[in-house]
Amino acid sequence: MKAESIVYTIAGMCFGIILGWIIATQQPAKSPVPVAQVADSAPQSSTSAAGQQAKVLDEARVQQLTTILNSDPKNAGAAVQLGNTYFDAERYTDAIQWYERALSIDPKNADASTDLGVSYYYTNRPDEALRQFETSLQIDPGHTKTLLNKGIVLAFGKQDLNGAADSWKRVVELAPGSPEAEAAQRGLEGIAAAQAGQAPGGASTNQ
């Protein structure tokens, strides 16, 4: 499981402000929030005000892992690591290819399945991400990183705050005190704060 998955890249986001914006724009005619807009809101994104540069692909690592896979095509671990290498470089389409290959070899790898779902989300495919998370949860119903990421995609990709809250509550129940539970709790607090600041119909109660 990549530490850079959604869970961690949004950990510093102001949940209350962003979720309040989602609530305010939840109308039947509205489209879900595009991934690019959500990513641009994350302070740790490559385009953040901190001036971080775009990630660079570790070509030597890619060559090393490709050589391993050429000699051992059924090496699921090498395929996962190759996916991770592309993920680290924010080349999510390439990462998807290798996570999918790893899962074709080892379909019970919940971590790789969830990283694949995260990569789908980052390529503006939230529905596929959610389907992949369900696959992860079939493998391991208590996989907290999956549940946390599922909540994030539901909130920011589908504007389903009730579904997100259900997923985050499950994380808190399963792993109290863990980094995942702390992130889930921030999400729950953000939803509560955003909803408390909205009048019926989505208008802010703050004048």
Structure characterization notes:
With 207 residues, this protein is an all-alpha fold. It has one domain: Serine Threonine Protein Phosphatase 5, Tetratricopeptide repeat (Alpha Horseshoe). 65% of the residues lie in helices and 0% in strands. The chain has 11 helices and no strands. The protein has helices at 6-9, 15-24, 35-41, 59-71, 76-88, 92-105, 110-122, 126-139, 144-157, 161-174, 179-196. Helix 5 (76-88) packs antiparallel against helix 6, helix 6 (92-105) packs antiparallel against helix 7 and helix 7 packs antiparallel against helix 8.
Low-confidence stretches: 7-12, 21-51, 199-207
CATH topology tier name: Serine Threonine Protein Phosphatase 5, Tetratricopeptide repeat
Q: Radius of gyration from the CA trace?
A: 18 Å
Query: What average pLDDT do the residues reach?
Result: 78
Number of helices: 11
Task: Count every beta strand, where a strand is a DSSP E run of 2 or more residues.
Answer: 0
CATH architecture: Alpha Horseshoe
Order of helices and strands: HHHHHHHHHHH
What structural category arises from helix and sheet content?
mainly alpha
Main sheet summary: none
3D shape: elongated
Distance between the termini: 44 Å
- What's the CATH class label? Mainly Alpha
| Integer count of domains | 1
